[in-house]
Amino acid sequence: MINLIQKIPKYWLFQALGWGLFLAVNVFFAISYRVVDQVFVIRLFVTISLGVLFTHLMRMVIKRLKLLQQHINRQLFSFLMLSVAFSLTVGLMETLFVELFDMGFKQERDFSFFQDYISNAFTWTIFLFIWNCLYFIYHFIDESTRNQLDKLKLEALVKSLELKTIKSHINPHFIFNALNSIRALIDENPLHARQAVTALSNILRSSMVSESQETISLEKELSIVKDYLALELIRFEDRLAINYDISSEVLNFQLPPMMLQTLVENAIKHGIAKSLKPGEITIRALKTDNHVKLHVLNTGMLNVDQNHEGFGIPSTASRLKLIFGEDASFSIQQIDEFYVQATVTFPMT
User: Fold this and answer.
1) pLDDT tens string 296-332
2) Is pTM beyond 0.70 here?
3) Please, what are the domains in the chain?
4) Which CA distances in Å does 38 have to 84, 95, 102, 113, 117?
């Protein structure tokens, strides 16, 4: 029996409970005042039938118009208008039924059709608005509970990521900023926070896997860079614009893991982060003759010590020489008064 009840949707259980309570209250007072007769029974059956039908239709309208996703003030106004609109219809149907089948109560005998209609419509407005308020309260509590659970899960994920960063070799300042950004999003936008957690997880996973890899395809490296920049967009918002100009013929090219990532981090640290003005980063990859060239262009001014202070930059040239020999090169320079460009040239092998 319990298993059978559990299979019934909560909506219909609450409908049965609500209208069952309505039935019990009406029967109790009818017995107390000794007004139980055939008219009472038929009217009560019709009222409950109309109530179940029209509240269900109202629910369909609420879901179709996505009223629960609107601002709370707009929701309450919409529910009131919905209650009035439906009550005018159901009130008319009940009044027509009473008139056609002579089902009026004694106190209604002297009422005109219009008076009966106004009375029924007003009563239904109250019933339907109460139903809408209960429907709203249930979903508000349910949504709040789910959001709270999501926040707890996200906070647990963030703590897990903090532990993973200990084993990674990613710029600790980036990790610190990313985790702070995610924490801020947990309350503001849980969905965006979850996407950010996924992006950071991908970066950490790539960092740990890269320890056992000598090279990685440019396509995979770009995927990680895009996750990295997605996190930085949370931090910089409108201050950061990102452009990609990637030739499809070099996507399978093998390069040292985290090399492009290092150049992009350097562009963020020494370019975007040091300016309060909006900036941009452009990543280009193209094939020229027998070489593949990577360009990371960023707004900013070249620091004379940048070649030594940039995270991972000092090792870039030595990694290139170790893997590709003298055919590979690395440079970083101020190309005009607004832009700095880092360029890596690889031989096609």
Assistant:
1) 999 988 876 555 444 456 667 777 777 787 888 898 8
2) no
3) 2-147 (no CATH), 168-347 (3.30.565.10)
4) 30, 17, 12, 22, 22
